Structure prediction request, 243 residues.
Amino acid sequence: LHCGGANLKAQEGGATRVIFYLSFRNPRAKVAVGNVGSIAREVHAKAYTLGELRRRLALLRDDAGPGGGAEGGFFDPFDDSPEEEETARFWLAAAEGGDRAAQFNLALCYKRGQGVGRDEAQAVRWFRSAAEARPREGRKQGEPQEEEEEEEEEGLALAQTNLGYAYYLGEGVARDLASAVRWWAAASKQGEPSAQHNLGVCYAEGTGVGRDPARALSLFAQAAAQGHEGARSRMRELAQGFS
Prediction:
């Protein structure tokens, strides 16, 4: 976006405000919005909500007519809804076919209300589908197992982590701390750092599981080694108690 007069305050030694909009899906993202600087004084004088700012920017389109658009009707080039709906339909078809990644992405759509109505229960349903272990493909019932071969295919770690959040917060499902711990433990086993951090907090505080500071410290260390800042901070706090 062209900043123009958005630098008004910068000339007086103040801060500069720059507005960026990026979309990998919305073909309207390339629509020229016009001179954003022309509303600089309004932005400085009023705290805009995101929706209000989007509408105001859309009306700045270079081809906007009296009604706020080339055809005289409001047109929001920042609206991703058509692409989100198409994407959600794609994820649904693949999810119903058993694709774990699609099930996880569809759950996120329901959780965030992107392309579908926000529905926490549906989010939990699809997180669970992606999170649960399944019989390994190609194995027939009763077929002998190769040495050290796992009988089941593990669920998607990120789905397990999100399902743990749902149980912990009671979103789309009855609050159940023990179930939150169980799902975070499953994701932690696969090395998912957020799950390791969350499970560490549970062990540190005795939430949904017996208190075990040593186990918590180990989990925080595993997550911290992967760059999880929250785990690194909790690890330092907990380690002080051992010194």
Summary: The beta strands are 134-135, 152-153. The radius of gyration is 25 Å. The chain has ten helices and two strands. The longest strand covers residues 134-135.
